[in-house]
Structures are given as C-alpha cells and as structure tokens.
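Reopening this ticket.

The earlier resolution said the output was attached, but the attachment link was broken on my side. Pasting everything inline this time so it's all in one place.
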Amino acid sequence: MDSQLKNISDSQFEVTITYPYEEVKEEFAKEVAKKIQKISIPGFRKGKAPASYIKRLYGDSLEYEASETLANKFFWDYIDDQQIKLISKPVMVDIDLKIQELFKFTIRYEVLPQLDIQNYSGHTIEVPELTVTDEAINSQIQTLKHEHASFQEDSEVIDNNYKITVDLRKYNNNDLLEDELFQKDIPISLFHPNVLPEINEKALNTKVNDTFDFTIKDTHTHDHDHEHEEGHSHEHTLVFKYQATVKKIEKMIISDLSEEIIKTLSYNRANNIEEFKKLLKETAENQNEKSTTDFFISQLYNRILESNPFTPPPSLVENTYNNLLEDREKNPRTKKTTLTDKDKEALKKQATENVRWYLISDAIIKKENITLTDEVVKELAQINAKKMGISSETLENHYLNNRETRERLRTDAFELFLTKNNVMKTVDQETFNTNMKKESEDAKQ
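Inline output:
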C-alpha cells in the first residue's frame, strides 16, 4: 500500500491510496461473494447460481461495485492508523480499479487546523475617555420628570411643554387636500426631541379646531449597477404634505420626582433625589466602563485575527452560517425581511470570522492553560459585583456553587487573560476620533 497526502488548505486534505491488486484481491473476492449471495438468477435458488455463470452474466461489474465499499474500509483503516480526527463526512474524489493491476482511490477529508497562535499579547488599544457630567445627570432627571409628568387640558399652545391630539388629512400630488381623513386622534408630544421642528413651530399659539400644514421628507438611497460603469448610489426624496386639525391641547405639569417614584426607579436603592443622582452617575460610569471594555476586546480580537490568517474548515463555517440564518429567522426584526445577496455575503463573512475566532481562542486557552481556578473565579466576582451593585462575596458564592454559571465564566476568564496581557490606553474623545479616522483612511489605501 502506498499513500500520498495533498494539502488543500489549513484544514482540508486529500489522500490518494494505491494498492497492487494482488494485495487486495482476497478482499475483493469476499465482497464479490457477498454480492453473489444476494443475486437472484432465474432457474436457480437465490445465491445458488454458479459463480462462473454469474461472472459470464455480470463480467467485472461486481468488482467495480465492491471497489467503493473497500475504498471506504481501507480509508478508515488509514485514518485509524494515522490517529486522525475528522470533523466532517469524507468525500470520495476519485476511484480507479484496474483488475489484476492496481486499486487506487482519492478521498478528501477535514480536520481541525493545527494552529500556533502568535501576537495575542503586548498590544496597545486606544479607547475613548467617557465621562459622566453633572449636566448629563440633570438632563436625565429632567427626562424622567417629563416621563412622570401629569397633563392638564388647556385652550392654547403657549410653548413646547404641551401634548396635542390631531386629526390628519393628506394633500395629493396636485397639492389639493383630500376629503377623507388620513389618520384620527394622533397624539403629538411637542416636548419630545424627535418631533419635527416644523410641527413645533406651526403648533405654537394654536387653539382647539385650529389647523396647520407640515411636510415630511423621506429620503432613500438606491444602488445602481450599469453594464459599462461601476455601481453608484442615488438619493431619491419623497415629500408628503399633511394638514393637522387640533382636537385637544394638554399642558405638561412638571414636578419633582416623588420619593415613591425614586424608590420605584432605583429598585429601592435610593430614597431621595441626591441618592438617586449618585446612583444614576454610578450606573452611567459602569455602562461607560463596559462600553470601553467591550470596544477594547473587540479591537483586540481584530488585531489577533489579522495576525493569525488561516482558512477555517468549510464544514464548520457552513454549520455556523446555517445557525446565523436560523437566528435571523427567529428574530422579529429580520424574519420577515428579504435576504439579499449582500446579506448572505455578510453572514458568510461573519460565520467565517466566528469560526476563526473560536479556533484561535481555543488554541490560546490550551497554549496558556487558562483554567477557571478558584482564584480566577474570585477575581471575576470582584469585577462583576461592582457592575451589578452587589457584594463580591455573594457573587463569588454563586459562581462557586452553580456549575452552569461557572461554564459561562470560561469566556470571562479568557477575556480577563487578554485584558491583563494587553494595554488599554485611554485618550480624550478628540484624539480618539482623529486616530480612528486616520486608521480608517489608511485601511482604504
């Protein structure tokens, strides 16, 4: 027996195995005998027709039928002998039988790539400095006051601290007002930041039964591909004109947040406005810290991926791609949308990167022997307890006594290792934006 191995990619191989026919003729004879036992010949009981008679009828076809069975058997003998661990079903590429001369076949198979991951430590990643100002907290308090404000019916809109209810009629393409009502009893909160400035302006000083006109512009960007020129984008703007009839006017009555509301909003962690502001600031700071950490890890992932190029196993990519498609079908926001070729391409790229990162992270974990020791669990509990607003002892006890939670902590332990072995550099927002813009421009060149 002779074998020749061909490297297709980092995870795909083709092995060509060749036997002199003399070496495998007994195996062929056994397989042919099995097939003869299943053949029915008129005038003979099943399996009892003479072999010479069947040979005259079938020629060498029984040997050729047996060749695929034996190729699979010999291939698995080779896999066991070489101690190869396959990750997908092998594929027969070629099979060649020359009776009395040789038996040769080629099979393609997939394995996990053998990776020697480099450059996963010593990186410096810039993150933006995110600060929580008193102005931001006061603005958040003001928003909450708006959300818990009461309303009192009034006769005229004096400023933007009003809610109005309107009926809408639509203008047609000839700028004529349609007779039928377009929408009825539409509430508009004039104090909401997303309200069109034109509506705020036109609604000012209106009274019940007054009318005002406003327009809504809807701009779409279309991609065009032409036979003799590259694709380009074209913006198309639709303009819709409406008339609003004011049916009801309500003035917003803003008051300080009550103790009851503060307790409800803070889950009983604050009793007055000062404690509540302090809690809001701590929460915002924790969110900022999480945002910068997530950005740091994301950028670090990209650096490590770029430093370790390899082609992942196609079967794993295909499985991951199908899982992403399944998730898309379950997502209420995307399940009813059409899956375009660009969407498929993006999902395929995401699947490829997901598999690559899984294999890279697994290789690093094994190389560095990153395990979930009690010391690591304690450190993670201290980090996460601060974010969750509970004691580290309580969280550590939960981690140590909950096997399912401990399994999920393995990713946290890996990210903790990366955080300790790379540098997160905080820079001011302007410097960060400038550097990110430069990186983006360099990447395009």
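Reporter confirms the inline version is readable. DSSP finds 13 helices and eleven strands in the chain. The first helix runs from residue 21 to 36.
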